[in-house]
Amino acid sequence: QVQLVESGGGLVQAGGSLRLSCAASGRTFITYEMGWFRQAPGKEREFVASITRSGGSTHYADSVKGRFTISRDNAKNMVYLGMNRLKPEDTAVYLCAARRLGEADFGSWGQGTQVTVPS
After folding, report:
1. Which of 98, 119, 105, 95 is nearest to 44 (CA)?
2. 95: which strand partners?
3. Cα–Cα distance for residue pair 91/11, rounded to 1 Å
4. How many helices (H) and strands (E) does the chain have?
5. N or C: less crowded end of the chain, CB within 10 Å?
6. What tens-digit pLDDT sequence spans the chain (119 residues)?
7. Residue 22 burial by CB count (10 A; 0-12/13-18/19+): exposed, middle or buried?
8. Contact predicate 93/112, CB 8 Å
C-alpha cells in the first residue's frame, strides 16, 4: 500500500482558487492511478477527478469540469488538484486516493484536507 498525505486546504472566498497537494510514499507510485474525492458534512463521499499512471488521461466529475485540474509529477511522487472559481458547494474534506494496476477500487486513502468556501 502507498501512504498518502494531503495538504493545501483552507478557507477561500467564492470565486477564489486553491491548489491541493498529495504526497505519496514508496517507489511504486507510477504503478498507481490517482484520484481525488471529497466528502461534505452529511453527504456521501464523491468522486472529483482521476489521472492515469502516465498522466496522459484525466477524468472529472461534471460538477468540477472546467474549474478543477488534476495533475501528477511522477518524479516527485506528487499529485495535485488545482481548483478555480470555487463555490460554496465545493466545501468538503478532500481526499487523495490510489488505485493499483489491475484493482477495481481505490485501495489507499489519505486523511484528507478541509476546503471551506463560505456562502
Report:
1. 95
2. 37
3. 9
4. 0, 11
5. C
6. 899 999 999 999 999 999 999 999 977 899 999 999 999 999 999 999 999 999 999 999 999 999 999 999 999 999 999 999 999 999 999 999 999 988 989 999 999 999 999 99
7. buried
8. yes
What are the respective helix, strand and coil percentages of the chain, to the nearest 5? 5, 50, 45
Q: Cell match 461534471: residue?
A: 62
CA–CA dist 115, 95 (Å, integer): 11
Cβ burial of 90 (10 Å; 0-12, 13-18, 19+) is: buried
The amino acid sitting at 28 is T
The contacts of residue 19 (CB under 8 Å, 6+ apart) are 8, 80, 81, 82, 83
How does 72-88 read in b/e, with b if 16+ C-beta sit within 10 Å?
Answer: beeeebbbbbebeebee
**Which of these, 86, 84, 92, 99, lies nearest to 113 by C-alpha position?**
92
Q: Which residues fall within 8 angstroms of residue 76, CB to CB, at 6 or more apart?
A: none
